[in-house]
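Supplementary Methods. Inverse-folding protocol.

Structures were first reduced to a discrete structure-token string of length 202. This string, shown here, constituted the complete conditioning input.
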């Protein structure tokens, strides 16, 4: 009887250890503990090197490197989206007036989902004023509709997902020659606590 009695708590201990091991494997637990920090130029440079490293020569990878002067100061997480845009783009009114090109935008905002795009469009109301914003994501909007809108009208800001923006550029629906600012929604996490840069397809 004593042996049986001793073996029961041991089984409980084993099951507790197994449960602990399972919890460690969850990426969301790891991400939950990591505090959000502003993205730095090195983050993007490392991603480019990782992505293109296997297929490109050393010289080609060197050409992909962007100088630090290409990067805007990151949002130190004390700003709202509108106040951040006002800080990095103080001459927005002038840029907006001078922009007359079709099939292009002055500012391109990339985020991981359609819902997040809508959130950001709402939160930039104080910044955008009366300029035109175009939704560049796939949810409920066909690519041909977006291409027609870009051809017919002048838009100042495009907010969308990397997949749809890439498709529009490849199909010659969106021209990036007059784009002055590209903003990456770096720190926002989805339901699985992944940032845009943690999604392999991106």
């Amino acid at each position: 009887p004593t042996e049986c009695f001793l073996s029961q708590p041991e089984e409980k201990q084993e099951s507790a250890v197994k449960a602990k091991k399972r919890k460690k494997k969850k990426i969301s637990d790891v991400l939950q503990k990591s505090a959000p920090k502003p993205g730095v130029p090195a983050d993007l440079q490392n991603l480019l090197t990782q992505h293109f490293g296997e297929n490109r020569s050393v010289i080609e990878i060197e050409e992909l490197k962007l100088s630090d002067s290409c990067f805007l100061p990151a949002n130190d997480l004390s700003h709202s989206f509108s106040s951040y845009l006002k800080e990095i783009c103080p001459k927005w009114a002038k840029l907006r007036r001078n922009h007359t090109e079709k099939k292009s935008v002055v500012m391109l905002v990339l985020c991981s989902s359609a819902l997040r795009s809508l959130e950001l469009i709402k939160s930039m109301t104080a910044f955008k004023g009366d300029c035109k914003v175009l939704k560049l994501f796939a949810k409920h909007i066909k690519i041909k509709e977006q291409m027609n809108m870009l051809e017919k009208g002048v838009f100042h800001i495009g907010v969308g997902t990397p997949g749809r923006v890439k498709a529009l550029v490849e199909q010659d629906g969106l021209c990036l020659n007059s784009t002055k600012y590209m903003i990456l929604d770096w720190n926002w996490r989805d339901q699985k606590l992944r940032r845009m840069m943690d999604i392999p397809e991106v």
